[in-house]
Amino acid sequence: MEHGTVLEWLVGVGDLVERGDVIAIVDTEKSEIEVEVWQAGTVTEFLVEIGQEVPVGTPLARLSTQGGVEAPPPGLPAPPAPVAVPAVHEEHPGRVVSPLVRRRAEELGVDLEHLVGTGPREAITRADVERAASARPPLASVSPPVDGIRPARLVAASPQARRLAGERGVDLRSIAGTGPGGAVLAADVGEGGAAVPPSPPSPRATIAALMARSNREIPHFHLTLDLDLGPTLTWLAGLNQQRSVANRILPAAVLLQATARAVAAHPEANGFWVDDDFRPGEGVQLGVAVALRGGGLVAPAIPDADQLDTDQTMAALRDLVGRARARRMRSREMSTATITVTNLGDRGVDSVHGVIHPPQVGLVGFGRITERPLVVDGGIVARSMVTATFAGDHRALDGHEGARVLATIDRLLRNPAKLNPPSPDPEKL
Amino acid sequence: MTPEEARAVLVASIQQVAPETDPDSVPGDADLLDELELDSMDVLNVVVAVHDRCGLEIAERDYPKLLTLDSFTDHLVTLSEA
User: Fold this and answer.
1) Mean pLDDT of A348-360
2) Which of A137, A278, A312 is nearest to A208 (CA)?
3) Stretch (H or E) spanning A203
4) Environment class of residue A89 by beta-carbon count within 10 Å: exposed (0-12), middle (13-18) or buried (19+)?
5) Percent of chain A residues past pLDDT 70, beyond the cut
6) Contact residues, chain B, for A250 at CB < 8 Å
7) What is d(CA B18, CA A305) in angstroms, rounded to the nearest whole number?
8) What is the mean pLDDT of residues A420-424?
9) Cα–Cα distances in Å, from A90 out to A1, A8, A63, A94, A95?
10) Which residues of B touch A317 (CB under 8 A)?
11) Is-contact A10 A160, C-beta < 8 A?
């Protein structure tokens, strides 16, 4: 990769960014990548125009850090790219649609055939797809609605949009942006006067589209295994007794951690089914299904969940659930899960046989923890048990591969203390 | 701590953790978690909030006492007298 072209900005001048935030989407000769920022700071200036082709290493934007000192500018990354995206293939000669955009179009049910691309070289951008999706009812976006209150200087907008808005005397705050995260794009800026905001997708429409697609496309198989949680609960009780309330660990965190490790040891369940082929995920990005009060479901990913110890997993879970319920998700975590866990435990049902979130190939479920009779050494004892389930995409994997994931979770939970510190080699599990 | 004070702390803690709920409207003997759709994370956060507000620490083995507003309040009063 020698050159890249900025397709879209995902932030605006004046926006505060945190380490790891995606600030731009760059098209390279091979694929589209999301450029992340490695320092926290405030975006002060864009150094490259949308559509401008620049060599690798060119600074893209300027940031100022909290001390007012200028941070080293984030530039085009040299290969290998930070996000692994499958190879681009062309549908029409001269018209490029990257897998990222293709996936978004699938999620939103947008037909790419008849779409006009507004990106460089007529490339179809994510914004083109999202605009097309929002132009027709019912809306079916997988991203949750964005918080709507934005002070003027923090309105995310592309440099082009800002320029047009300035020229036409339009207040950026009055425009409902159709770019990622609600960013205002040039096409959103009207001739003047308030633009009509697109109505946000209802939570049900969002889930409906995903679940319908899943059932339509994925040949599911379902496996069940009852797990003895005695050792885990005993271990946790001992831990929690010695800690302050604020540092207590929930059983859910241990279940997530064990699942992440098990999936790391069985990578055939960790990845995507795309274009009749299995693409392994890079690391275990563990989607966690979070129910939103009042209805709805989001499944953001805990990054590299197999590398975390129990405390870190608990912290990640707490952070995700808190932000999900406050509708403050980051676009990156909404699209990166390589496998998802759904937990209708607590006091819900005994087991959940869920629906896989495409393009993932697996879904792990946990029901509620209950005291059940178990036969041990010929006698009946009461044990705390939980029913674990695995839903698999039969195009990508077979029953025995899914069974191995559950069996490994079972084995790990029999000796939870060994989950920490994280094993550097998942083969050693 | 009087029962009224305990209840006030409890209601405030629940409202902090689940702002879209209305704990005051829940009958005292109703199942709190079902009525307000609280899960284990919410319960833990309420326990933390209660501790932050009045310093009382609820042991994990006493979680079964937290099922209703009344029993939760009673437990806080008991703890405060210990």
Assistant:
1) 88
2) A137
3) helix A203-217
4) exposed
5) 76
6) 40-41, 44
7) 27
8) 66
9) 18, 20, 36, 8, 7
10) 41
11) no
> With an 8 Å Cβ cutoff, are A293 and B58 in contact?
no
Higher pLDDT, A39 or A396: A396
Instruction: Say which residues have a Cβ less than 8 Å from residue A222's Cβ, sequence separation at least 6.
Output: A353, A389, A390, A391, A392
Q: Flag if B51 and A245 touch (Cβ within 8 Å).
A: yes
Q: How distant is the alpha carbon of residue A6 from its chain centre? A: 22
Strand A290-291 to strand A297-298: parallel, antiparallel, or no bridges (unpaired)?
antiparallel
Per-residue confidence (pLDDT) for residue B41, from 0 to 100: 92
Residue A155 corresponds to which tokens in the numbers above?
Answer: 């309105």
Q: What is the ipTM of this complex?
A: 0.92
- Residue type for A339, please? I
- pTM for the whole structure: 0.62
| pLDDT of A386 over the 90 cut | yes
Neighbours of A307 (CB within 10 A): 17
Contact by Cβ (8 Å): A384, A220: no
To the nearest whole angstrom, how far is the Cα of A240 from the nearest Cα of chain B? 8
> Strand, helix or coil at A290?
strand
pLDDT at A317 over 70: yes
Spatial separation of the C-alpha atoms in residues A300 and A336, rounded to whole Å:
8
Given a cut of 90, whether residue A383 has pLDDT beyond it is yes
- Return the residue matching tokens 């629906």: A355
